[in-house]
Amino acid sequence: MEEVSRPxxxxxxxxxxxxxxxxxxxxxxxxxxxxxxxDHHDCIRAGLSESYEIIYAEGNFTKxxxxxxxxxxxxxxxxxxxxxxxxx
Length: 88
Prior knowledge:
This protein is of the alpha+beta class. It has helices spanning 40-57, 63-69, and strands at residues 11-21, 27-28, 35-37, 71-81.
């Protein structure tokens, strides 16, 4: 497994939220991702919050759609070395 940080290196974390279907086995994301965060804590916090917003609060899916497709959210926070190309 790759080290998350090394002394003297600045890491950023790339959040991607997916909506998956247990029925089809497929996951989808949208053009808003990935999003950049300065640390793992902030990335995880945003992943939890945004997952909830996408599947419930924004009205993207009805209860029947969630049940029939067995939809569930998942997210990743991938560490990337900031070489001046990762923008927040």
